[in-house]
Amino acid sequence: MATQNYCAIRTNLCNMVIENLETLIQSSFRISFYIRKNTFKLVIVKQPFDNLYEVSLIKHKNMLSRNRGKVASDDRLFGDPIMQQKLKDAVQDMSYLLSRGFAEKSSLQLVGNRYLLNVRQQKALLGMSASQEHVTIRNKRTVKPENIDNKVVVIDGFNLLITIESALSGAYLFKGIDGFYRDVSGVHGTYKRVQKTEEAILLVGNILKKLGADTVLWYFDAPVSNSGRLKTRLYELAAQYQFPWEIYLVNNPDKELSKSNHIVVSSDAWILNKAKQNFNLGAYLIENIISNINIVYAE
Fold first, then answer.
1. What is the DSSP string of 105-147?
2. CA-to-CA distance for 132 and 179, rounded, in angstroms?
3. Which of 19, 72, 173, 266 is 20 to 30 A off residue 185, Cα-Cα?
């Protein structure tokens, strides 16, 4: 147990150093770790640059080598043509039930059991399904790309970012009957940067800049770990590339987006049903910019 605690402490300290590695290197600091007689110490000493930083840089690169791609079972669950057809049939049944007022939870359980879908497949099924009423509402309120010019765009931060990271990382994406793309990833209380995070952010920034958006408001869940670090990085990129961004950390982004009078970017079903206007930015990037994507279609 003691060894596990020391490992956890060391990991946290390493992450702290890695997050501030560039600053430490520029300031010529030496970083050392010691464990002696149940005492754990982190020592940061000012001295000339040496090989120790090369080790730290390798650790930094390894941390960012993770991606949001497929898990081991995904090709079997989503890549097989027979399984994809089964999902299409399941979407039709699920959407039929939702259109007739059946509860989402009981409909998912019923259809999932009928087609023998596991939890991961049921999550994909839920993302691809919708009642006809909700499909009509979402499509009616969708703003075309050419109408983004001089408008304020409000982004559901984690929702969009994780979808684009997944697309760039080779994960399976699921196009719903409403035309919006969704993934089967999630933050689960903690957001971790991946290899494609910065590329995803820049894709969003460059496209909205090209489309002429006046201001872009990013909303992130404040309770999610690392949301503060992500906010800092977005502001750094905004300054570097002259993106007209404002970033907010709030306890309930869904509520903020659902009541906004501006154009909302999200694939969250509840938000889309409430938002006055939406822009399907995920679909625009996936269908026009990003290549070699694994897509499962609802129909």
1. HHHHHHHHHHTT--HHHHHHHHHH---HHHHHHHHHTBPPGGG
2. 12
3. 19
Residue showing tokens 């399984």:
83
Q: Are 21 and 59 in contact (CB under 8 A)?
A: no
Q: How many residues does the chain have?
A: 299
- Sign of the alpha-carbon dihedral angle for 73, 78, 81, 83: positive
Task: For residue 259, count CB atoms less than 10 angstroms from its CB and return exposed for 0-12, middle for 13-18, buried for 19 or more.
Answer: exposed
154, 260 contact by CB (below 8 A): yes
- Sequence-distant (6+) residues with CB within 8 A of 272 are 134, 137, 138, 141, 178, 180, 264, 266, 278
Paired tokens of 176: 């719903």
Token pair in block for residue 259: 């009541």
Average pLDDT on 165-188 reads 94
Question: If we measure between CA atoms, which residue out of 137, 171, 183, 189 comes closest to residue 282?
Answer: 183
pLDDT band (50, 70, 90) for residue 11: low
Tens of pLDDT, residue by residue over 218-260, are 999 999 999 999 999 999 999 999 999 999 999 999 999 999 9
